[in-house]
Amino acid sequence: MYLTDARGILIKGNKTYSQVSGDVLRPLEAKTPRWWLVATFISSLAIAWGIYSIYVTISTGIGTWGINNNVGWGWGIINFVWWIGIGHAGTAFSIFLFILRQKWRTSINRAAEAMTVVAVICAGMYPLLHMGRVWDAFFILPYPNTRGPLWDNFNSPLFWDVVAISTYLMASAVFWYIGMIPDLAAVRERATSKIKKAVYSILSFGWVGTAKAWLRYETAAILLGGLAAPLVVSVHSVVSMDFATSVMPGWHTTIFPPYFVVGAIFSGFGMVLTLMILVRKIFHYEDYVTERHVDAIARILTFISLIMGTAYATELFMAWYAGGEYEMFTFMKNRATGDYALAFWTMITCNAIIPQLFWFKKIRHNLIIVFIISLFINLGMWFERYVIVVTSMSKDFLPASWAQYKPTITEIGIFVGTLGIFALGVLLFFRYIPMISIHEVKAIIKPTTETNSRKHE
Amino acid sequence: MKNYYSSYEEYQEIRGPGIIPPESPHDAERNEPDEEEPSMSTSRRDFLKLMGFSLGYAALATSCENPVRKAIPYLNQPLEITPGISNYYASTFFDGDEYAGILVKTREGRPIKIEGNGLSSLTKGGTSARIQASVLNLYDLARLKHPLKDNQQTSWESIDSEITSKLSQISTQGGKIVLLTSTIISPSTRQLIGDFMTNYPSTQWITYDSISASGILEAHELNFGQRMIPDYRFDKAKLIVAFNADFLGNWIAPVTYAKRYSQGRQLTESDSMSRHIQIESYMSLTGSNADQRIQIKPSQEGLMLLNLYNRIAAQKGAPVYPADPSPVETASLAADLLQHEGASLVISGSNDPNVQIIVNAINYLIGSYGTTISLSTPLTLKQGIDREMITLVEEMNDGKVAALITWNVNPAYDYPEAARFISGLQKTGLTVTLTERPDETSQLVQYVCAGNNYLESWCDAEPLKGHFSLGQPVIPRLFDTRQAQDCLLRWMGNEKDYYTYLQEYWQNNIFPQQSAKGLFTDFWNQCVHDGIFEMPPSEDVNTLYTPVRMTSSFPGVTAGIELVLYQKMGIGTGRHANNPWLQELPDPITRATWDNYLCISPSDAHELDLASEDVVLLNGNLEIPVIVQPGQPGGTVSMALGYGRTNCGKVANGIGKNAYPLITMTDGHRNYFSGNVRLEKTGKTYPLGRTQTHHTMEGRAIVRETTVEEWHKNPKSGNEMHQDIVKQNLTLYQLPVFDGIHWGMAINLNACIGCGNCVISCQAENNVAVIGKEQVRMRRIMHWMRIDRYYSEEADNPEVVHMPVMCQHCDNAPCENVCPVAATPHSSEGLNQMAYNRCIGTRYCMNNCPYRVRRFNWFEYANNDKFDYNLNNELSKLVLNPDVTVRSRGVVEKCSFCVHRLQEKKLEAKLENRTLKDGDIKTACQESCPADAIVFGDMNDPESAVSRLMVNPRTYQLLEQIHTLPSVHYMTKVRNMDPADKKRNYKNTYPIVSGEETTENISHE
Prior knowledge:
The complex is a heterodimer. By secondary structure, chain A is mainly α. Helices cover 71% and strands 0% of the residues of chain A. In chain A, α1 (17-29) packs antiparallel against α16. Chain B has 31 helices and 40 strands. Chain B is globular and about 105 Å long.
């Protein structure tokens, strides 16, 4: 009944139910592959460098970063926004598509959600680390205290950030986990060692798969999805308000909330693409993640890229139309033609121009090119945040205080550290958790496998 | 279950109303709940609780290291000291270069801040950056802590007996004793030296100024028969023409001159404004304030002056001398001067008596003497005659000097022929140095007599004839040091101490000249209290002018690059180079800290393919970085003196390059320029710590300016947009209301000269950290107030504006609402406050501050060996103001409008049961300003000075269009130059490259 001509075959190879379970659980049950150990080792090294950089930052001071009195935020906030953007993939992907009853999401949503959780953890570290006195970070929580009227400033977008991000992390983690319970039970059933059985039975909350349980489960999933969907919009809107509510030229723009949300989904989908093309290749999931999946994501990206282009154009138009001399300077002189033109045009090229190649079917179906374009999107979205954070700060109202910003090795180290955390998180996920939602795929193989499709024709 | 209650009402609720009437005499019993008897026995549970707590507490208490803080109470508390209350003592600052009447603020017996003494008619409460910073010199670890013999510690007894016996031996043999001092303006000390010379008749006293005014002294000797520096009355001049004289920065008496100059630039009370033309060879602070700036090469100054003289003389019928044509057209200048006859003033910074003779002649012809120049009250601030020093060095090398006693001079560093001096020193039998701190000279002499800091000494001064100034110690000696005067007294066998000597001098010489006080004790106490004693001004009699034949052998247009040597506002002669505050004070023009460099004109830089921070080889032996300096005349470069110290202390040693050897000597005088220097590009670069790297306003209405003509027509001119912006500044929100006081500030951009004194004053007042060159280069300077300097677009001869910027205390502050933890709230008096304890350092406030005045503590700046400046040792920390917290790492700080001063004065008024008066409170920056450019007060009081300025049509707020509602107001800059004048422009004959390349150079980052 969910079969549509537009999507065509979603799962190839005439899979049976047990084949699905076997395919998906193979990485969990097989011996640890050598590449996995190597990759884990490399990401651990990256984490070690990150931890060292964090140690330097906390023990010596934020002065070890390249930021200054004029550019108060640098890589810390750029990377925070970048990771949050990537963290939009899972939720946007699984929840929006879940609510829209897009069945093709089933082979990808689990991985996307895992990515979200890890990316949000990476992102969440930055607001803490960039604080001058991280040991007093708890001041930001509205806990009851004896300080009389001194409490949090509920007007501050940074406070909204705290609320929005923690809510988002909580919601996406719960959604991800609930979605995994039946699959964890499947792992438990097939587990051979006692320990594994015990662990997975705890993780699966004793799921037995009765009809009643399935009924409740479906209800919970849709409820959670409905609750979490607004969060996708809210969290990046709130992040954008860090900038939009300020007075700085280039930050003070009303377009920011939608622009940020779309940008976040863009970067999230880009990262999903990057990751799924790799997964498909490494774990031989060509049957589950087919060209059609990639094609669908590419089509979405083409559309979002158009929105991004429109947003960039709107910003430039509004700077001119509003007639504010500082905005004009920031957008026209500083960004488009000035010192930061390289970053600006990298952003435009990667986000608004290169993804337009997806209009061509041949390109959409050439996975190597798609993979490269997805990397460009990740890069472009990083530059978008760079352009926003640095250009507006570097050359603001009073030219006397204009200053340049260059990251230091410490800032780079922390970024590499978060890349390591992300990689390690994803690697652990591949190894210990079914990375494709078994029960959801099983639910769609009937109407969408090749035999059935042919019958349909 | 016990019921605890927090109020009587609650108690009644618990107990039921009316059980015990409130008036009951048994009120006391009511506090004891009667249902349950407090049990005296300890249950097992209580015991366990107690034990757990005790163990836990003991573990906690013993495991955390508690810092030991030493606090020793007074055994006998001095009468005048109340902990927490500041005492102010009048004193005198004179370091050999600069004079100011000062008040020293002390807390619990330690001086922490210098303020100007308002009673002084010379400095009128103004100070300079170096005077402000001088309090830190007292606490410098590098100071000499005991006398030295051959660089080994010795005792005063042995040093006294050895020197006395050697001196008497030399004296009896008729050997020559030379006392080499800096300028001494203390009348009692001059008498004391006279006594010393009577005691040792073979003594010669030579005065040596590292920055000499020998030319002026000698020219006046020729013209008026008296070696003197006349009193220049910039306040009385309508037209000021200065040739290479940085009189607002470093020339002779800059604080006095700035006070006088600013009187003609305020445009608040009076509507007349002086006109200032600066003819100069480098971009000086004074030149940056001029209405018109003409660029010449230094060697051409004489020729231009002679041409100017000839034009005036031709009009006046005075003798005309043959002269080559002037490099710059002088006709209009001469016309201007003649037009303002009797109200104009020509000065020159040249040290060539031949040039100064021409200046005198011009001033004589245009009637300056008796009007804008007073000869009856000469300044005594420079007394050195260059020729005497040259002779001394020759005699020393010839072995003719048996003993040399140097006092407060450092020729081994700052004499152009230092090597000759040093070799002479080795041929001198007895060498003694009286100095407060080690220097390049003190390490070469046999005896170093460690002197007191001026804050530990008695002194007097007569900077201007009839203007007496008294200085008193404000702290006991910190080290085993002795005042230089005491040394001399001791060596001449006089057992009196200098204090007695000083008092006797005043009793015998100054007391009889007045009649107000009958008793000397009264007079003395009054003088010590006031710090100033001024004689009634005598009649301004014009001394007879004797014309002198002028030389006309001035070179015409010269080829080759000429080098100008100048002094920076912070470092000056280099005397106080070990002061980290001064090293980190950005130069008002280049905005560079911690270095000297070669300023090169944009055209020459283009020609030699140089950019700022490129290193050049100067004269083939000195590698020095360049700064491309708009306004530097083509064909010239300039370099600051006072750097390249080698034995000054760890702050100054090795900073910059010593430029003193580049001073040239001609005809027995030192020229602070040198012709035909060679520049070679090395291809190396050298990082400079500049606090500003973009130099134009990008056409933004940041400093609004007009011309005096326009302003007369329309007082709003240049500021027309203000009314429109106020009209457009609409908001849906209610405007903030301040019922009581609403603090505000007005800064007169026309009065501000950009000297940077307020920056140091603020630093001293608010314990602002020094961060070092690397961090300055990272653009992290901590100064709470900065002086932005902008150039107009023409790079070859730009107009310059200075704009002091500190926290604007916006009533609609963008920083306040973004702080997640509410660490920066608004006070009920309109102050934007910082709660350091609450700040977690997100820096969101800094990002959202359009004025960029917030400062972040990127590192722990106190007690950190990586920032080994004044916050890293126990001695220098004595300078800290106890009213202001030393900020820790990770918090944001900024200008507080000196909130501790506000609280102090409010409390004082409250104790006296009165309301605050306007002018009761002065912020640190305002108090020290030599130009009176800053006014602070209550904006709610319509009569206050600041309120009156707020309604002045010249007043606007910085970036007012973004509706931040700042409490700081600025007043337009007015230039005394009508548009026609601008076209007339004094054409410079040098080819100057203009256009895009040069503009690119100035905005070079």
